Write a sequence for this structure.
């Protein structure tokens, strides 16, 4: 059961002119699952992406980077679940390329106009034959209104599809933004989430779109964590079809650039937080805000130490205000000259610790009250500067263990 | 149920001349638990210690450092369970000092001849009155033969006491070594484990004993991890009473120094590994050996990334050879220029991955066979140098979640 998150209303998702999406059941790993999606992009569409920093990055990630660097306009995406095509060596690269060739052949495009994405089990050979056999049905299914189906088509251990839309005025024109994501486990994005796709009909210069993609990833997907495991396949793609009729956005810092960025960021944050709300076994949505640091980087160190501590996460699961575990995580986060007597700790509005010790006014029942909520904010004051940063995470429950002990069976 | 570890045979543990140990039930947190231990040390005994690097180090850790730095000979240790006296600010420091004063008063010693140790819940006030009231009974109980009782007296969520002995010839004399430890959770020592005490009757120069303590911690307690949570209270103490009659060991590098080091190391490693075997919810004992690194530090980065991955740990729990999760952890360990095509992966004798991809000869049933064992060695070759290092850890089971969701109740 995800935390305060339900399936999107398909009718409320905005189609993006210039983007058509088709889904089919290709039997990649199991029969009768929507496991193959294609995005067909009109001519003139700009595409930018950011990808995992895992050194064991998957074959499709390597091919995406190569195709984007080549400068050939991207006209199609192909996405399979059930198999990550990671840890597959040279053979995996060949299979990722063969997938692109199969789709490009059907569309009359060069192979490097296609970006491939895979998610699922690591170190198994990708069944290219079954994917290629499924492509004609996926192309035949392609419609602008298929965003909700696409959100379903990229799910793995997710329990609900994730999709959001927004609109903004950019240079006097209404532009639309729609995005989808998937997550659930192996989530500690380091550049982007497992899979996130965001499209707008705004017209954006290519260099600006890449800047937008990096800034968006940094402020959304790169601030969530479920289990600290950075995936081999993290990919976040921003698509701009240019069909809204606005003058091309030439700078992020212009009024138009900022209006577009805020609309994109709103959707990207909802998508990233949706991944946490639907984290494997999650029962609580936790915001960890660290302030008073010398720089944002040390605030993140502390926030991630808290977010990754199995002891803190199991205490949230149990609604147990065993809050000394949070202080312990602050202490081992890696700030070598941290002075414990400067530390303040709040749980929502409850002032738990002051000057590194228990706040004399803190009462266990106040901590208990907040711990029982499904949404909790942990606020840590480091007392050594003006910087701050925020990370979103979830608790660690029996279901996380069950899901990951049973994942392949 | 610990992994291949049973309670020590009290009769097989060697008493150490010059050390007497007494235990009592002081009701620190709950009634009818052996929760208070004292070590009484004869005059002439040398004591060295290493302590947690957690910046939220507990009050007793701060007092231990202060007393050891002062140079006053240490004549007694006082150890309580049920309360960690961490995250307790200035009041916690005062209570740790009051504990030392209470024991010193009963023994006719200065307060700084006592080292205090606490383990248990964080951010609760230490009940000094109950501890002081229990001290006379603990002193009355003191006997050289009480090592097994001491191992029991320092337990928290441990399921079996941990104690080992060894003997060595040092300068023509037989010296004895006996040690105890506790662990179970919040275990990722960074200088030492939660609590470890090692005593020998060898005569050792004070500076050499401190060197020995640091080297021993580095090669034993600092190489185990259960959940990645570095405790606020980690303390490892080495006691040398000098009663074996050997000439004082003046250098670690001498034949005598090495003979003593190896005997101490044997016991320290068994104690450290015993903590993993009895890790909270542990069902498997995992050795992670990383070789072919440029230096030992990068081998440790990789070993800890594997050891801390919740996905890898749940796969071990499930006996599921979902070994791509290990490659993913290698990839995000933090070696920025790691070349995935140089990576080799073995599970015991089974060659799972070669050149960064699945070994063509690898068969799932071979991986399955090893994963079902209670003791497993993961060997990773980085293919970029001659350095290596090893870390010991356990799996992540439902019981870890249960134990930590219920710890305070």
């Amino acid at each position: 059961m995800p935390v305060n998150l339900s399936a999107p209303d398909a009718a409320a998702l905005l189609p993006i002119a210039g983007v058509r999406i088709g889904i089919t059941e290709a039997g990649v790993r199991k029969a009768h699952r929507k496991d193959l999606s294609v995005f067909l992009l009109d001519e003139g569409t700009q595409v930018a992406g950011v990808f995992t920093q895992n050194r064991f990055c998957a074959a499709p990630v390597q091919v995406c980077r190569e195709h984007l660097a080549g400068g050939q306009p991207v006209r199609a995406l192909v996405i399979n679940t059930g198999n990550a095509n990671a840890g597959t060596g040279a053979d995996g690269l060949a299979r990722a390329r063969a997938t692109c060739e199969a789709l490009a052949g059907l569309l009359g495009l060069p192979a490097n106009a296609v970006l491939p994405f895979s998610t699922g089990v690591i170190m198994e050979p990708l069944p290219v034959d079954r994917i290629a056999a499924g492509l004609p049905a996926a192309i035949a299914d392609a419609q602008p209104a298929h965003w909700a189906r696409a959100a379903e088509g990229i799910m793995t251990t997710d329990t609900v599809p994730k999709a959001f839309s927004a609109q903004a005025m950019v240079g006097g024109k209404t532009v639309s933004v729609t995005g989808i994501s998937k997550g659930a486990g192996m989530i500690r994005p380091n550049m982007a989430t497992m899979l996130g796709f965001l499209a707008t009909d705004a017209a954006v210069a290519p260099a600006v779109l890449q800047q937008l993609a990096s800034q968006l990833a940094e402020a959304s997907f790169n601030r969530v964590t479920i289990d600290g495991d950075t995936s081999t396949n993290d990919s976040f793609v921003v698509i701009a079809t240019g069909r809204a009729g606005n003058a091309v956005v030439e700078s992020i810092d212009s009024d138009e650039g900022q209006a577009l960025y805020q609309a994109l960021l709103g959707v990207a944050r909802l998508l990233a937080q949706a991944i946490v709300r639907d984290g494997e076994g999650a029962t609580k949505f936790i915001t960890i805000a660290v302030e008073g640091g010398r720089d944002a980087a040390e605030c993140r160190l502390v926030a991630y130490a808290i977010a990754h501590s199995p002891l803190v996460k199991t205490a949230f699961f149990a609604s147990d205000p065993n809050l000394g575990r949070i202080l312990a995580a602050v202490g081992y986060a890696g700030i070598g000259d941290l002075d414990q007597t400067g530390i303040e700790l709040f749980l929502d509005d409850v002032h738990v610790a002051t000057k590194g010790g228990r706040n004399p006014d803190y009462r266990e029942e106040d901590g208990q009250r907040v711990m029982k909520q499904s949404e909790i904010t942990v606020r840590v004051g480091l007392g050594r500067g003006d910087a701050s940063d925020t990370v979103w995470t979830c608790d660690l429950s029996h279901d996380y263990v069950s899901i990951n002990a049973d994942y392949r069976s």
